[in-house]
């Protein structure tokens, strides 16, 4: 596959290493230094684009890939207030999009465990639930995209919580997500159910960016021959 890397920072470089190992070719690398290369004509040289830039630039980059007619895998976080708009545009243009707040296989298994645990806890109001996410200090958004996905899963199951907040709270309806920024943390997510009698905790710790990068390349391999809007559940069958 010929791959365009839109965003050549920590993730773009980790993805390039995995893509080359898997026999793919990187035909375009875009960062702030060469934004002039981020054109529809250049993107069209690729079979698939992989977009990891950040909250401010993801939307425009994804739209550009759709306009180029090139399937796009995006992992940028902090822009999902415009996700519905992108989905509508992608459908209208008969494009291909695969978005995930977290591409690692381990986190996608963790999502399934989180949903199941949240469902079991529905009938146990004696437990309160809280989340913590820990990332490196260069991260621009808080809470992490993964934490928001986990929180939305819990909100979907737990009728005692009606919204998430990114600060401490004593309101019973608020699901607290605490964000910590310490180096070199690639990404840790912890969900704690606490009661007077005992606590239950589930935790995922990424040891490096390799899992995210491998998942993004698997997603690109999945997407490049398909039309439509997909998620990592489609890639992994979980
Ligand atoms: N879904 C997932 O599994 C994961 C998602 N992420 C998310 O991916 C995003 C990127 O993370 P990370 O690689 O760590 O961040 P970095 O800051 O290391 O890299 C971002 C890259 O995007 C470039 N960039 C910034 N603005 C633009 C733009 N307008 N057009 C094109 N390129 C641009 C930067 O250029 P320059 O270097 O010149 O500034 C840099 O190359 C974040 O939103 C992060 O949360 C991260 C890990 C996993
Ligand atoms: O910015 C990061 O580094 C990460 N971002 C994603 C997120 O916001 O959830 C995924 C991973 O945790 C690393």
Automatic annotation (TrEMBL):
SUPFAM superfamilies found in the cross-reference section: Glyceraldehyde-3-phosphate dehydrogenase-like, C-terminal domain, NAD(P)-binding Rossmann-fold domains
From the Swiss-Prot or TrEMBL record, give the protein name: 4-hydroxy-tetrahydrodipicolinate reductase
Family from the record: Belongs to the DapB family.
Q: Boundaries of each Dihydrodipicolinate reductase N-terminal domain copy?
A: 1-103
Q: Which reaction does it catalyse?
A: (S)-2,3,4,5-tetrahydrodipicolinate + NAD(+) + H2O = (2S,4S)-4-hydroxy-2,3,4,5-tetrahydrodipicolinate + NADH + H(+); (S)-2,3,4,5-tetrahydrodipicolinate + NADP(+) + H2O = (2S,4S)-4-hydroxy-2,3,4,5-tetrahydrodipicolinate + NADPH + H(+)
Listed GO biological process terms: diaminopimelate biosynthetic process; lysine biosynthetic process via diaminopimelate
A Pfam family of the record is DapB_N
């Amino acid at each position: 596959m010929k791959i365009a890397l839109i965003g050549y920072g920590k993730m773009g470089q980790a993805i390039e290493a995995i893509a080359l190992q898997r026999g793919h070719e990187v035909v375009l690398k875009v960062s702030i230094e060469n934004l002039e290369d981020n054109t529809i004509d250049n993107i069209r040289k690729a079979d698939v684009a992989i977009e990891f830039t950040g909250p401010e630039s993801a939307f425009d980059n994804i739209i550009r890939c759709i306009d180029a007619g090139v399937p796009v895998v995006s992992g940028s976080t902090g822009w999902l207030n415009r996700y519905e708009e992108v989905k509508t545009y992608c459908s209208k243009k008969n494009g291909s999009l695969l978005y995930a707040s977290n591409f690692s296989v381990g986190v996608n298994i963790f999502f399934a465990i989180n949903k199941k645990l949240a469902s079991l806890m529905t009938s146990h109001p004696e437990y309160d639930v809280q989340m913590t996410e820990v990332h490196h200090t260069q991260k621009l958004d808080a809470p992490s995209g993964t934490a928001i996905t986990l929180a939305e899963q819990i909100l979907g199951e737990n009728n005692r919580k009606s919204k998430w907040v990114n600060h401490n709270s004593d309101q019973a309806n608020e699901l607290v997500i605490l964000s910590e920024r310490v180096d070199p943390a690639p990404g840790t997510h912890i969900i704690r159910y606490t009661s007077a009698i005992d606590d239950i905790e589930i935790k995922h710790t990424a040891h490096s960016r390799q899992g995210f990068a491998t998942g993004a390349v698997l997603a690109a391999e999945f997407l490049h021959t398909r039309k439509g809007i997909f998620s990592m559940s489609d890639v992994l069958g979980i």
